[in-house]
UniProtKB/TrEMBL annotation:
Pfam families: AAA_33. It comes from Ideonella dechloratans. Coiled coil: none annotated. This is AAA family ATPase.
Amino acid sequence: MSAQHTLADGLAQYLAQHSGLPVARAETHISWLLFCGQDAYKLKKPLKLAFLDFSTPALRQHFCEEELRLNQRLAPQIYLDVLAVTGSAAAPALGGSGPVIDHALHMRRFADDALWSTRLAQGQLTADDLTLLGERLAAFHSAAPRATADGDHGQPADIAAATAKVLAPLLTWPHSAAQAQPLQAWLRAEEARLMPWWQRRLADGCVREGHGDLHLGNVVQLPGGPTAFDCIEFDPALRWIDTMNDLAFLTMDLQVRGRRDLAFALLDGYLTLSGDWDGLTGLRYFEVYRALVRAMVAGLRQGQGGAAADEPDYLGWALRHTTPPWAGRGAPLLITHGLSGSGKSTWARALLQAAGAVRLRSDVERKRLFGLGPLDDSRAHGLDIYTAEATQRTFARLEDTARMLLRAGYPVIVDAAFLRRDQRERFSTLARTLGSPWLILHCQAGPEELARRLARRATSVQDPSEATAAVLKQQQGHAQGLGADEVRTAITVGECDATGVAQVLQRWLSPL
């Protein structure tokens, strides 16, 4: 029996004696976990491996403190303290007066079914959960320290090298080589394309001290909503990464399990808050890389006699992901059309999840141009953001961003009123130029319903729109209806429901 095993046994006995409660135990390849009542304690094993060094008490203390520091950024309600372990391995105590022999991370315990990996399997995750987590991750990344352009992390060559290292065993294993070989060619081509982009992302501060291991098993549902936990503490290079690389683990994990709808709800929440549209230029590469990591781990487990039957087909998904159905042409483009309160945003949110699309919201991008957040009230800041000049800038921003996203291979939904014909024409021209399937979503609601929705919106603090009854009246006075030529590329909708969403998708994406 190892000394660390003895220490874990001794601490379990200590906790049981001092609490009068049963102590449950769990083990990972690098840690022991003890669960006692509402508390959990983690001991790091005295290991020195290729990717970590916990071999001395001083190193274990350092990495306990790093784990506490990193995870308190996201989950301070879980990560409480680092406690000295005193006494001896056979008779230890927490925080006693004897000699310090090790350290333990003290955490607040949560229910096993709170893990998102469990909740997804049980069908308990909702789009609202994912949108909220996306917003929280965007705020987390915004506050995280930035890497420097001449520093040790986020260098383009290192990104390509990390992918090559993961791909190497997959190219040699009999069960993976056939799928890994075409992936190798795609990855090399993408790396050549993305090298300047990676360098610019690093210079622009997009490489930050993130989470590093952001998959479904490291997200938990707490009373205050979802949060990530269990950041990588033992290797800075694995967490000092592009923010889109961090997010890609979770978007991949959802998609490979057949929940593209939830992945794009997450992405919608993240992008609405962060505005990091540029990040989608390389998201597909990062998602494929994350799938390769999972495939490699699954292959290693299988080689060691572990079960592989429950593992998703990461390599198959990665291979399909490199070639979207609209490869070689413009991705689909849809714009909404209708008065305030007609249901445009409700429809756009449902469609982005169903189609795996990205949504641009005029209300949000207009505010972003003035340095405001999505939920900031421009009037409270003394700003007039609805001038003709501001509207022109907003639609120019929407057009430029939509063009970039379509070229990156993402279906785009532009959520705006589009009450002027010239505004609609600039996007129909964009669709023709790129060869994109094109649709106008004409949203309608009766006068009473419009008034009711605007009144409800006025009491909400979660809606970016600042439209009022006065704004609606103004819109009704100057709105330019769809012309006969536009009607041919439009579909009229009322209340949003699953049947209607399916009909819109059939009309919008049928050429694909």
